[in-house]
Write a structure and sequence with these properties.
By secondary structure, this protein is mostly helical. It contains nine helices and no strands.
């Protein structure tokens, strides 16, 4: 019995390693070649697995593409949930959230940002991806809005601004910076951007007498 359990554990572990190799290879291919020009053959080659093995784990390129984005968003959501759950002032939470976001915008991770652009450009053509992105986008907005509402209740922020609209603007600003950096190749001094963004936001959101 112990032998069988050990064997099962090993096989499960190897299967997970193979799955991760495929996902990492797919991310690299989609980032470098784009969704349309990436083939399952190319992903299999990059992952070092047979085409049959690839199809054993993922039935199609679309399924692999969507799972890749689901995993990415789930990771970001978990980070935000943990961050916003902390008993800290809103400006501290905002600073940490922006710092976390900017930590992905470094040269060695530029392919991640390009991959995000690829997800957005392909979403209108892939209904499943489109639905998932809208659902997860709303979850992020709801999380930010809830955090803003609580800060308003504590008197940390002015109350004459709609929390939902502010959440959308904050997210759009960050997405816009990522887009310029990833697609146009614009280089930013991220520390200066962070300081300026926080300064402008917090001064504009301060409670009015």
């Amino acid at each position: 019995m112990l032998y069988r359990l050990t064997g099962q554990s090993i096989r499960k572990g190897l299967a997970e390693v193979t799955r991760e190799k495929i996902i990492e290879a797919a991310a690299k291919c989609f980032s470098e070649r784009g969704y349309t020009k990436t083939t399952m053959d190319k992903i299999a080659e990059e992952a070092g697995v047979s085409k049959g093995t690839l199809y054993w784990y993922f039935k199609s390129k679309e399924e692999l593409f969507v799972e890749l984005k689901e995993r990415q968003i789930s990771k970001v959501l978990k980070q935000l949930e943990n961050l916003f759950a902390q008993k800290k002032a809103f400006n501290i939470k905002l600073m940490r959230a922006i710092s976390t976001y900017f930590s992905y915008l470094v040269p060695e991770k530029r392919e991640v940002a390009r991959l995000n652009v690829e997800f957005l450009s392909e979403a209108p053509k892939i209904p499943r991806l489109n639905r998932m992105l809208k659902r997860q986008y709303q979850r992020v907005l709801d999380l930010i809005r809830s955090t803003i509402e609580k800060a308003m209740e504590r008197g940390e922020l002015r109350k004459d601004i709609d929390p939902g609209t502010l959440s959308m603007i904050l997210l759009a600003m960050l997405d816009g910076l990522e887009l310029h950096w990833a697609v146009l190749g614009v280089d930013f001094d991220w520390e200066k951007v962070k300081e300026t963004l926080l300064d402008v936001l917090m001064k504009g959101l301060e409670p009015r007498e």
